[in-house]
Amino acid sequence: MSEKAELKVGDQTFELPIIEGTENEKAIDISKLRASSGLITIDPGFKNTGSTTSAITFLNGEQGILRYRGYAIEDLAEKASFLEVTYLLIYGELPNKEQYNKFTQEITHHTLIHEDIKNILDGFPSNSHPMGVLSSLVSSLTAFYPESLDPNRSSDEVDLSIKRLIAKMPTMAAWAYKNEIGHPANYPDNSLDYCSNFLKMMFAVPSAEYEVDPVIANALDKLLILHADHEQNCSTSTVRVVGSSHASLYASISAGISALWGPLHGGANQAVIEMLEAIKADGGDVAKYMAKAKDKNDPFRLMGFGHRVYKNFDPRAKIIKKAADDVLDKLGINDPILEIAKGLEEVALKDDYFVERKLYPNVDFYSGIIYRAIGIPTSMFTVMFALGRLPGWIAQWKEMRANNEPIGRPRQVYTGSNLTSFKSLDQR
Ligand code: ACO
Question: Following DSSP, what letter does each residue of 222-249 receive, concatenated?
């Protein structure tokens, strides 16, 4: 007989099934608790609530483990390309050579976007934050591919929508940046690989030749792999919940981009650099900002520190820290804010406040430093994160659809007024 939990409320006992995952993680299944007891569970921020079972990403925050489809993030970051990882996440296994070549060709084939999307882009004021532009452009794809509106279409049609999105996302991301700085957009160069093409669209200007530096393209490829999935985080849960209403793939991903935007999630890498710059402008006093971070009356938080699930170390941070050192070394960059970053890291890792709360540098503490070194402007950092997270969002959306999951609709405990008699305007 499978294991069960017992919940005692007053003199009543309720039996609850226990679900076990392939890595022996256990969960109490409370889905039928309300029907038998009238009780719901409450867990603001879903800190201890599983919303689904999933076969995509395994993460153990205590031991600092991250695997996509069973493969260690360390192996994938070192040995695979971003498009291989994209295939792995979405289709469940690593591609063989033939599958990989076909997939790469298909993605390359769809990089161009409809000229009318450019008209939409032109409607945004320059200076618009590229995350807002990207989210809008992704949503606008529903208008250009109306067949994508119905997620119940044949798997081939859904697959085409998926490939279009992977192919067009770098074009839309680079164009969002060009719009921000008021420069003409560059069209995709399909002779280049995924990251090199993106870099060229970002940085080429009509007046000069642009050669992609392979050191930069490789660093970018690695960064995208490290961000490719992270199980049920804020933006991924958003994608799954929006998709659970049978909204289209593009609508669901557009919502995920919005969720990623905030500084407590994907916006953290932008916030890290802004924080480091502010500390530099204020004289570079690390101790002052450490004190502010610990002061409960001060809203300042040390951006890039702490993580909802990693309470030991973030395995991505380890890989990326080394990559940051390599890239800065190879490019011969000496950035003064790096000294401030190192100072903060050194002090925080020994400070009781941070040690007791298990607050360690997360992936975004270092990703901003690499992006800055390779010339990506701060306002584009979160867009880079979205580019990396795209395959994870798609894989999770696809899994949610394949499992035929019910619409996401949490409950609440009401704490407002009891029934109140209505008084018309002149009686109030
Ligand atoms: N600086 C100072 N104190 C912090 C920080 C921080 N960066 N992070 C958490 N704390 C403190 C909290 O004040 C709280 O202290 P208390 O127990 O005395 O009240 C304690 O540590 C626990 O913090 P919570 O906010 O409850 O932890 P939670 O798991 O909800 O939040 C989060 C995690 C949002 C990432 C938080 O650590 C944070 O805001 N970090 C800075 C933003 C950041 O880097 N976000 C990127 C996350 S990674 C990603 O999205 C890819």
Answer: HHHHHTS--SS-HHHHHHHHHHHTT--H
Residues sharing a CB contact under 8 Å with residue 118, sequence separation 6 or more, in sequence order = 175, 185
Q: Fill in the amino acid letter for 265.
A: H
Containing domain of residue 33, as a range? 4-50
Distance (Å, rounded) from C-alpha 371 to C-alpha 273?
Answer: 10
15, part of any domain: yes
Asked if residues 314 and 307 have their Cβ atoms less than 8 Å apart, the reply is yes
Q: How many CB atoms lie within 10 A of CB 54?
A: 19
Looking at the annotation, which residues are catalytic? 307, 364
Nearest CA to ligand 1 atom 13: 296
264 part of a folded domain = no
List, in order, residues 6 or more apart from 323 with CB less than 8 Å away: 219, 222, 223, 366, 370
Mean pLDDT, consecutive 10-residue stretches, the chain (428 aa), reads: 90 96 96 96 96 97 94 96 98 98 97 95 93 97 94 93 98 96 94 97 91 92 96 97 98 98 88 92 92 94 89 87 84 84 88 92 87 90 96 98 96 97 95
For residues 271 and 401, what is the distance between their CA atoms, to the nearest angstrom?
A: 34
| 8 Å CB contact between 220 and 206 | no
Atom number, ligand 1, closest to the C-alpha of residue 306: 37
Residue with the smallest CA separation from ligand 1 atom 29 is 308
Query: Structurally, how many domains does the chain consist of?
Result: 1
With respect to residue 285, please indicate whether it lies within any of the assigned structural domains: no
Pocket test for ligand 1, best of 290, 308, 384 (most atoms within 8 A of CB): 308
What is the residue-wise DSSP string for 164-190?
A: HHHHHHHHHHHHHHHHHHTPPPPPP-T
CATH number at residue 34: 2.20.28.60
Predicted structure pTM score: 0.90
Task: Give the end-to-end CA distance of the chain in Å, rounded to a whole number.
Answer: 63
Dist CA 423 CA 428 (whole Å): 6
Token couple for 273:
């650099």
Report the relative pairing of strands 12-20 and 26-28 from DSSP bridges. Answer: antiparallel
Neighbours of 57 (CB within 10 A): 22
Report if residue 236 sits inside a domain. Answer: no
